[in-house]
Amino acid sequence: MEAFADPQEEHLRGRSHLYFARSVKAGLVETLEKLLNGLRTPQLDRELRTLIEGLLPRLTIYHSVLSELRPKRAVLSLSDDHPLRPIVDVFQVELEQALRRYDAYSTRSRLRACAEGTCQKILPPSSLKSCGGCGITLYCSGACQKRHWRAVHRRTCVALHEINSASVSRFGARNISFMRFLVMTAFKENKDPLTDELVRFLDGTQPRTNDAVRRAVVPIILFEFEGATPVNILFIQADTIPWLPIPLAYVELAQQYPGRIFLHLFVQRILVLHRDSSVERTKEEVKATKKYLHRHIFPFYVSGRCAEMYQLLRQSRGGVLQSLLDATMDEMMLGSY
């Protein structure tokens, strides 16, 4: 079971989804069903509880895992009086929700934004071309690419290539794309909580009397996932969480186009399993709970109108106007990656 957790060693992390997908293909779910309905012991119950409650849900963020779990969704069945029935039922609900995300992913809108922050064009990826250096920054034209290069991309291209290459080599391009889809889905489904978070964020970053200071505030929306739906959604600044540094390449991008780019941040903490729950965790294990297995940033582009309204909110004094706040959020919901 510990093969599906996250080792403390950084270079060994990021493989649990591979091991799990292979195990499911080899019959893990059927074996789990037999263990649940076989001879029970307290130790086995503890192990199964950890697997079903702690490990399985967090693996539903992977497209590759869900593709293996999809045909197994009805395998687990327990008697009504089984002590683990409640947590199995909870996981089944979480799995169904994740599989709905999986199905929706195949029919998702594939529109993407031109990365040149003043362009505002949102087009199918086939109508955009990617930067030959980083491979992930998209443009609608050569003119936009040149303007963006001069403005910011010449300073960030290499760093973005390194960040993207590391993520793709560890987790796979399809899984990263699915995580971006999970963030977009959560963003669309949580307008009201996000509105409240924006008010809190604005209250915490005002007053600003200097354009340079105001420009330095980079709006980040953090989505923390333990399963296929986020457990936390927060507006933060780039330096809010000391152990969650935001790469400078993304900070520079957002600063270059104030209000036009919000950084959507997908995070999932590492999971460290202690072999004996009665033994106190070491300092290293406690420290590891603050580390993240996933930390993916997806620049989110909003319209010029939304950027203008956001800047008005940033400059407002004596409280946020509800009508302006609502209009800003309505416009923000129309944005794109």
From TrEMBL:
Q: How the protein sits in the membrane?
A: Multi-pass membrane protein
Q: Which InterPro entries match?
A: Phytol/farnesol_kinase (IPR039606), Znf_MYND (IPR002893)
Q: What is its main location?
A: membrane
Q: Which UniProt keywords apply?
A: Chloroplast, Kinase, Membrane, Metal-binding, Plastid, Transferase, Transit peptide, Transmembrane, Transmembrane helix, Zinc, Zinc-finger
As recorded in UniProt, its EC number(s) are: 2.7.1.182
* Tree of life domain: Eukaryota
Reaction(s) catalysed (UniProt annotation):
phytol + CTP = phytyl phosphate + CDP + H(+)
Gene Ontology cellular-component terms listed: membrane
Give the similarity note.
Belongs to the polyprenol kinase family.
PROSITE patterns tied to this protein: ZF_MYND_1, ZF_MYND_2
One Pfam family matching this protein: zf-MYND
Could you tell me where this protein is found in the cell? Membrane; Plastid, Chloroplast
Q: List the transmembrane segments.
A: none
Citing just one GO molecular function, the answer is:
zinc ion binding
Q: What is the protein name for this chain?
A: phytol kinase
Q: Pathway of this protein?
A: Cofactor biosynthesis; tocopherol biosynthesis
Every MYND-type domain range:
111-157
